[in-house]
Each structure stands twice: as C-alpha cells, then as structure tokens.
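We emphasize that the prediction below concerns an isolated chain of 187 residues; any contacts that depend on oligomerization or on bound cofactors are therefore not represented. The input was used exactly as deposited, without trimming of termini.
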Amino acid sequence: MRVAVGLLHYPILDRRRNIVATNITNLDVHDIARACRVYGIERYDLIQPLEEQLMVVSRLLEHWRIGDGAEFNPMRKTALTMVHTAESLEAALKDWGGNPSLVSTHARAVDGVPAIGFRDLRAKIEGAGDEEQLFLLFGTGFGLTEEMMRSCTYLLEPIRGASKDDYRHLSVRSAVSICLDRLLGPW
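Result of the prediction step, given as a token string:
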C-alpha cells in the first residue's frame, strides 16, 4: 500500500474552538519528514492556504534541498525530498493522484466517523496491494474540525499513554512518530 501523510493547518480548531489557520513550524517540517523517511512514507504534504506561509516553506526546502544545507546535511536533504505543499486537502489529494482512503487522527472520538484501531489499520496496510493508497491526516492547533473528520474514511483511535488522568495533548511531531511506528514499524 502506498502511504502519504498530511499535516493540515486549515481548517483547524484553536483552544476556544474557533476555526483558524495555524502557522507551519520549522520543527514540524523537518521532524515529520524525517519520521516519514524512516517508515517509507511516499509523500508528506503541508496543507496551508496562506501564501506567506507557503513561501517560508519553499525557502526552507530550497535551502536544505539545493542550497548550503544540502551539502551540510545530506541526510536531511534526503528526508525533505518527499515534502510537498498544498493550499487545501483537496489539492494535496489531487496532486498525489488516485483515490486514497483518508484516515484522520484525533484525541477524541467523533460521532458519524467510523473508528479504526491501530491493529486493524495495520492489517489493512499489510494486506493491501501496491496500487492502494492511504492518506493519514494530522491536525495542528487543537485539532481537525468535526466536518473535516466526517469527510474521512476512518478516524484512527486516539493515542493513549499511561498517565492516570488520561492526558493526551501530544505535539503533532510525537503523534506522527507514534502512529507511523504502530502502523508500519517492524515489530
């Protein structure tokens, strides 16, 4: 199965549940690309409608792909080759081509979205043919809107740790790494 990761920056909820566009962070670009490279992800899309934000990413990628950064750190260059930008989820999916299953992630369940566990999604990935596609969608801020999640094929079960109070507010970088390891790791 071909797998892609998308990091959505709009529409996103803020802490007051307002719909906002969040900023792309340098750490999310680099760290998620590196995790994607480790787990054999085909592409990593940064989804952001704001032109100024996309320009920042373009300059950053240019530095690490063909500028001084490419010579300074070839390992980072290799990881960043799969990074793409798109102004919307629809544009990212169209650019990738095909008809992928869209799986969103969130720290809570959402009515109307079929849930899928890590084990079941891993089994689907392992049993799928090379022509099948899966697009894993992660949110920034305080998560994806319910409308966005309802447009997905599945909602992946929340990551639960071992805290007694069920604390689940991970950085998106950590969440991506945990999800990729559970779904694609060699264990």
